[in-house]
Amino acid sequence: MTKRMILDFSKRPLLLAPMADVTNPAFRMLCHEKGADFTFTEMINAAGFLNGDSFAMDRGISYDQKPYGIQIVGPSADSICEAAVGLEEKLRPAVIDINMGCPSPKILKDKCGAYLLNDTSVPPAIIAKLSENLKTPVTAKIRLYRETERTVALAKSLEDAGAAWISVHARTAAQGYSGKANWNAVEQIKENVSIPVILNGDIFTPQDLKQAIETGCDGFMIGRGAIGNPGIFEHMKKALSSDFEESETKDEAAFQEEFRQRILDFKRYCFLLETYNLYAHVNIKSHAQWFTKGLQHSKDMRLEIASLQKETRLRHLNDEEIAESRRVLAGQIVDVLEKYFEKIGK
Ligand SMILES: Cc1cc2nc3c(=O)[nH]c(=O)nc-3n(C[C@H](O)[C@H](O)[C@H](O)COP(=O)(O)O)c2cc1C
Fold this sequence. Notes:
By secondary structure, the chain is α/β, with parallel strands linked by helices. It has 14 helices and eight strands. Its EC number is 1.3.1.-.
């Protein structure tokens, strides 16, 4: 079956990485608005979805009309496929991606994520089954093996099995987040397959992105750099589209502009959480802390935000009450951000 490709890889698209507790529908929408060409949901547990867990559905939904990918995490071709067929029918994502890289102990214990890489015959078998059973293009997100040749062989097997593209977090599962991402290994994968290869790992600045582009990969996926900073996509694109050279030192006006923009983004985020009734699912306090990253007075703002309402008090509340409590908290957080913004203007 020929499946429509939804990304123009000639434009070197920038993708938001799937991130649990981060890439909820409101955050994805904001990233689309700020220039992300494609976004992924948080990983959705196949068993959770099949058991009717409403949280799984809430994670997978999308409220704008932009193409996006749903990521599934599961232990076997059968359970992943059953969940994928259901999610395809209910939510119609542009892509269904399989998590073959998560190294967290809980996920490995459930024989999911990077566990799937232990037997090289399993990942292509999963992709083959999904390709046969879905109308939606299927992609895989993998990590590296220690030996690059082995990763190249895996990538080829995924291509043969019908993967529309692969995203590679350029570290081994055992590395977690330590060490530097090995882009060279991803470049070798790219040289050996004909499907698009998305490079992921350690792209934080326009300079990083420029270097990443030199690998010849087709798209570039940003994870941690976008947490609390959805404007990174706009910033990267601006930097790429002109002779713009980011100076090593920011002047006062640049700091102020960054701060102002971050407050606007946070307010927009809160508006989207409210609009789509997502406050009950999002720990607004941690998200707010992330939005202060790299700003002047960041440490003081974090301390002040931390001292606001305690999340532990929410334990006995229902969803509606939690949402109301977080809505109030979001207003208090905006006050804190604006107070410090005024300080830097003086
Ligand atoms: C908070 C957090 C949650 C993550 N959740 C997922 C996930 O659900 N699925 C997945 O494939 N990878 C997940 N990852 C890994 C990222 O998608 C990405 O591969 C990794 O952060 C490396 O990219 P970066 O250097 O741009 O952050 C997560 C990473 C972080 C920091």
